[in-house]
Amino acid sequence: MADNVDTLIRAILNRYHDDRLIIGVDGLSRAGKTTVVDEIQQRIIEKKKNVCVFHIDDHIVERKKRYDTGFDQWHEYYNLQWDVGYLRQEFFEKLRDAPEINLPFYDSERDEAVSKTVVIPGGCIVIIEGVFLQREEWRQFFDFVVYLDCPRETRFKRESASTREQIEKFKTRYWKAEDHYLEIVRPLSNADMIISS
Predict the structure, then answer these.
(1) Which part of the chain is the Phosphoribulokinase/uridine kinase domain (predicted)?
(2) d(CA 142, CA 52)
């Protein structure tokens, strides 16, 4: 993994020319995205470059909008977990130039979205981490996408013991959505770099 991250850092810095650079770190749940992003962020800071990190799961919607909607559970997870169109318009379309962006941040304890303003320096390397980043609505906004490829069995073992007990939820909600993404979007084929994790 360390050698792959070194290669990724070089690829990012080779593409950086003082303009805002938008990087996507894509991968399915528990593939290791946050760990890789933390490493990238630290290394970029050491290079004295501005870096701004967004976690797409910070911007999910309230439970009533993504559970018990009448749709299949996998559809709820893939299509309703985030307001995909809103994020395209108010986040992705503004990322290239906007000095600041106003975004809803999900508060899980209160089950509500709280609006916050994020300031983005001009010549910043922007890193976005999350699942399903290469979906049709968002893919065009990235300058470079790395996909973390990790077997489902390995990812499932990284879940807590109590979470692993909810195997039926994984089968009907999460895994079906993942299979849809892999089949329809083909993220491994479309990523600029693949890292096995």
Answers:
(1) 22-196
(2) 14
User: What is the per-residue pLDDT across 71-124, written as a single tens digit (0 to 9) for each?
Assistant: 999 999 999 999 999 999 999 999 999 999 999 999 999 999 999 999 999 899
What type of residue is 157?
K
Query: Tell me, which fold does domain 2-196 have in CATH?
Result: Rossmann fold (3.40.50)
d(CA 127, CA 118): 14
Amino acid at 138: W
Q: What are the Cα distances from residue 16, in Å, to 42, 89, 158?
A: 16, 25, 34
pLDDT at residue 4 in the model = 87
Name residue 27's amino acid. Answer: G
Question: Domains of the chain: which residue ranges?
Answer: 2-196
* Cα 67 from Cα 62, distance rounded (Å): 9
Q: Which residue in the block uniquely carries the two structure tokens 């999350």? A: 130
Q: Give the residue from 135, 124, 129 showing the smallest Cα distance to 59.
A: 129
Token output for 111: 């089950």
